[in-house]
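Hey, sorry to bother you again with one of my protein questions. There's a protein on my desk that I can't quite get my head around. No rush at all, and the record is pasted right below.
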Amino acid sequence: MDTPDLPSVTPPASEPHLPDVPVPGAESVFVHTRGIRLHVAVRGPRNAPLVLFIHGFGGGCFDWRELIPALGDAPFRLAAVDMRGYGRSDKTPRGYDLTTAASDMCGTIRALGHAEATVVGHGEGGLVGWTMAAHEPRRVSSLVTVASAHPLVLARTMLTRPFSQWSRLRDSLYAQLPRLPERTLTADDAKAVAVSFRRQVAPGFRTTPLCRVHEDLRRTAMLVDKVAHLSCEYRRWTVRSHLRREGSVFDRTFPARTLAPVLCLDGSMDPAYDARIAEAGAARGGPGSRVKLLYGVGHFPHIEDAPTVAAVLREWLGVDAPDTLAD
């Protein structure tokens, strides 16, 4: 796998420093929405249709640094955001639930000057994308989830078949403990973050220089002040909300099917991959929703094999003729 222009990122023992240019060829901008400031890496013409990329747990806009350039000359404005509590975005004391996160992202679409966007969400970012499509359907023209799931499908699966999602459930349950998860995430220059990333990618990717680059990027990102605590807050809400009335109220906000079509993209070597979850998610999407399985990659297909994911996205967005979506 070619790895041109890879940065040398070594997590420092003192003050962590995120890359000045987290996505090659992109401009770092700050948008103001709903009383907070969010950092976004933006590439492409202002008047082109918007594609909004949302990272998952422990990530940042840098998660998309291989995929966005791989999309080449696609006629879109590509924007990768640092979610609330991550990267250069504001670290507020509250607001780490899916409803607020979805509102943040819909506000980001508007703050960038667009009425709607194709939303691409990885992991927890996919949960946010589903919530956006349910709560503010006019903002989501289509949704692509990467190694993610519909929130209600995932919750039901964890209750009825917990061991099929043990890797996800284990991390979510561990995050419920006070203080210990944060200490684990930041100990030894965030070594646990690198171990977790390596565990979730395909074995063949673990020996590549690109794997080391992203291990270091994620370690550095986790060492930014407050990120370890606030990233755990998202997971705490996901579990605790189902023990309160808030969870049942949230569940009832989801329609049987979204208006937007949904592409559920997964890696065959993802420890959390379950075909039943992907199929149940696609069944809750709008007309044209479908499932796509990529072979030989794990939980981070957009990092492990960006050219293939870019080809799938280009077809989904209507840039290229149908081919790569066919199984």
User: Anything to note?
Assistant: The mean pLDDT is 93. The first helix runs from residue 67 to 70. The chain has one domain: 27-316.
